[in-house]
């Protein structure tokens, strides 16, 4: 039997230590009920990274644009563990704006968590760990950031990912409906239509979806219905 290559083992251990020593700017880590996606209602730990290159007109997490605390990945993992939940969501801001986000996602997957990533779709998702559920938030005209959609990201989606449209009004709805057909999005993965909180009446969006028989899931933000619009929920 061949002897173990101690040098190779040491190199791997050094690489592992290097990854968990990488740092990220973190706005908050909290335990709540998932308020969106097909995981809605599931107890989840949220890791909210600081910073975002987009400025959507309806953004509800502008407090994460600046500030935050620099924390090592090892410390982040230690903060997540005591909650004892299977589900972890990495969000922002725009989490992929920090390069070390990829290492964090990898480490969470290696530890057996069911991980989802909430990303704007403006940054490349091709290097995201294959076990991560990517929630791609395609920006509508009403967001003011439609030009930043990176459409090449669609090629990297799998059936366990999801596409989200946050809709301000009927113009946004019609735009999303056209993109749904143009890119055959429902054949790629689940598609979510969500009304902007306090702007588009949910019943109106529901009526449009039923009228047009769209193959999408309508979602409301459960956490806001329970606790209102505030950090840490």
Description:
This protein has a single domain, classed as Aldolase class I (TIM Barrel, Alpha-Beta Barrel), CATH 3.20.20. The relative contact order is 0.14. Strand 7, helix 4 and strand 8 form a beta-alpha-beta unit. The longest helix has 16 residues. About 3% of the residues have low confidence. By secondary structure, the chain is α/β, with parallel strands linked by helices. It has six helices and nine strands. A nine-stranded mixed β-sheet has the order 3-1-2-4-5-6-7-8-9.
Compact description:
This protein has 233 residues and is an alpha/beta fold.
Write the layout of secondary structure elements.
Elements: H1 6-21, E1 23-33, E2 43-49, E3 69-72, H2 73-80, E4 87-91, H3 101-110, E5 114-119, E6 133-138, E7 162-167, H4 170-182, E8 191-195, H5 202-212, E9 217-218, H6 222-227
Parallel strand pairs: 2-4, 4-5, 5-6, 6-7, 7-8, 8-9
Antiparallel strand pairs: 1-2, 1-3
Specify Rg, calculated over alpha carbons: 19 Å
Q: List the helices and strands in order.
A: HEEEHEHEEEHEHEH
CATH class: Alpha Beta
User: In CATH terms, what is the architecture?
Assistant: Alpha-Beta Barrel
Question: Which features would summarize this protein structure in a list?
Answer:
single chain, 233 residues, alpha/beta, nine-stranded mixed β-sheet, 22% strand
């Amino acid at each position: 039997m061949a002897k173990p290559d101690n040098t190779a083992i040491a190199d791997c251990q050094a690489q592992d230590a290097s990854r968990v020593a990488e740092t990220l700017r973190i706005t908050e880590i909290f335990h709540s009920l998932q308020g969106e996606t097909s995981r809605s209602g599931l107890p989840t730990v949220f890791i909210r990274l600081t910073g975002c290159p987009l400025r959507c007109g309806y953004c509800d997490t502008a407090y994460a644009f600046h500030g935050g605390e620099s924390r090592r990945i090892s410390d982040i993992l230690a903060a997540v563990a005591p909650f004892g939940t299977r589900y972890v969501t990495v969000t922002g801001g725009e989490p992929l704006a920090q390069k070390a986000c990829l290492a964090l996602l990898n480490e969470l997957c290696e530890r057996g968590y069911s991980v989802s990533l909430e990303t704007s779709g403006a940054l490349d998702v091709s290097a995201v760990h294959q076990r991560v559920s990517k929630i791609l938030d395609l920006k509508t005209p009403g967001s003011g950031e439609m030009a930043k959609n990176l459409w090449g990201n669609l090629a990297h989606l799998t059936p366990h990912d999801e596409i989200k449209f946050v809709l301000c009004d009927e113009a946004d709805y019609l735009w999303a409906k056209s993109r749904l057909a143009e890119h055959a999005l429902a054949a790629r993965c689940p598609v979510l239509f969500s009304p902007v909180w306090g702007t588009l009446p949910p019943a109106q969006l529901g009526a449009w979806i039923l009228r047009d028989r769209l193959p999408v899931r309508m979602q409301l933000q459960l956490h806001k219905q329970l606790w209102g619009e505030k950090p840490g929920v």
